[in-house]
């Protein structure tokens, strides 16, 4: 469940089977006067659009039952609820939800047409806000993917430590200290400080230094973990590894930042 704000109206967006559905119940609050979703659904143009959409995207759509419903549109006595429409036609473009975030939801394609029915200007703003939402989600997904990559490479790193730096028969406390020391080799090379120094400098923040890293920093950190594992296998001293890793971090961050800047200029 996510939210967008359009013309001072808060609108819920949910994901159904990998598709985005926007709350029509929230959207209708932006329309002045007494209007109902059933008013929109009984409109012949609305039904024709939904019918075409369902025919394209829903192989289980009951087009025969839909044809009967559409034939009644335009009559004063005709009225149909979303729940009844979905039940009779097996439509997937509309969803009637109960509970805390209940209401009528529509696939984004349908919801944008509903926005046009509310106010033409409203459609422009909701499309813009929805695109902004998806762009933010894409950035977050990219950050999460890089964070997971860093975690996977950390296992390669710790395996090298276990194989080459841990003597036999040590205590858990000694083992933890070796791992922490090696993690701080990467932290100092990348961020210029140890994990403890970061916590001391940021007492109000939860998590650790890597939770607040940028995507570029996570990419570079992931590379450093693999390189350090190789250095450990080669038997390089920790001080020598730290100096080499720091120079590599400076170079890689410079390349990544320049690449991002050049890409932004080309947009």
What's this model, at a glance?
The chain is of the alpha+beta class and 267 residues long.
Element layout with pairings:
Layout: E1 2-6, E2 9-16, E3 19-23, H1 24-27, H2 37-41, H3 44-57, H4 63-72, H5 82-89, E4 94-97, E5 103-107, H6 108-118, H7 120-164, H8 172-191, H9 195-201, H10 215-233, H11 238-266
Antiparallel strand pairs: 1-2, 2-3, 3-5, 4-5
Description:
The structure is a single chain. With 267 residues, the chain is of the alpha+beta class. The protein folds into 2 domains: 2-118, no CATH class; 135-266, no CATH class. It is 64% helix and 10% strand. The chain contains 11 helices and 5 strands. The protein has a 5-stranded antiparallel β-sheet with strand order 1-2-3-5-4. The longest helix has 45 residues, at 120-164. It starts with a strand and ends with a helix. The relative contact order is 0.09. The mean pLDDT is 79.
Q: Which class best fits the helix and strand makeup? A: alpha+beta
Biggest β-sheet, characterized?
5 strands, antiparallel
Number of domains: 2
| Overall geometric form | elongated
Enumerate the spans where pLDDT stays under 50 for 5 or more consecutive residues: none
């Amino acid at each position: 469940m996510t939210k967008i704000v359009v013309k001072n109206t808060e609108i819920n967006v949910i994901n159904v089977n990998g598709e985005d559905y926007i709350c029509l119940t929230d959207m209708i609050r932006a329309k002045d006067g007494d209007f109902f979703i059933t008013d929109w659904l009984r409109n012949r143009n609305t039904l024709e659009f939904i019918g075409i959409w369902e025919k394209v995207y829903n192989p289980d759509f009951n087009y025969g039952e839909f044809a009967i419903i559409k034939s009644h549109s335009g009559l004063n006595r005709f009225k149909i609820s979303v729940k009844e429409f979905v039940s009779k036609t097996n439509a997937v473009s509309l969803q009637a939800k109960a509970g805390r975030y209940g209401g009528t939801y529509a696939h984004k394609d349908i919801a944008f047409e509903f926005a046009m029915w509310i106010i033409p200007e409203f459609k422009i703003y909701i499309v813009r806000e929805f695109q902004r939402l998806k762009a933010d989600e894409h950035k977050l997904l990219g950050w999460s993917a890089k964070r997971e990559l860093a975690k996977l490479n950390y296992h390669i790193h710790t395996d090298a430590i276990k194989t080459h730096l841990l003597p036999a028969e040590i205590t858990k406390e000694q083992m933890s200290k070796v791992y922490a020391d090696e993690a701080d080799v990467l932290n100092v090379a990348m961020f210029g400080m140890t994990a403890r120094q970061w916590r001391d400098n940021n007492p109000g923040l939860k998590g650790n230094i890597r939770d607040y890293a940028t995507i570029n920093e996570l990419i570079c950190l992931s590379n450093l973990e693999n390189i350090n594992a190789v250095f450990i296998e080669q038997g390089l001293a920790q001080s020598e590894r730290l100096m080499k890793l720091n120079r590599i971090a400076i170079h890689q961050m410079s390349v990544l930042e320049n690449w991002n800047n050049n890409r932004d200029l080309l947009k």
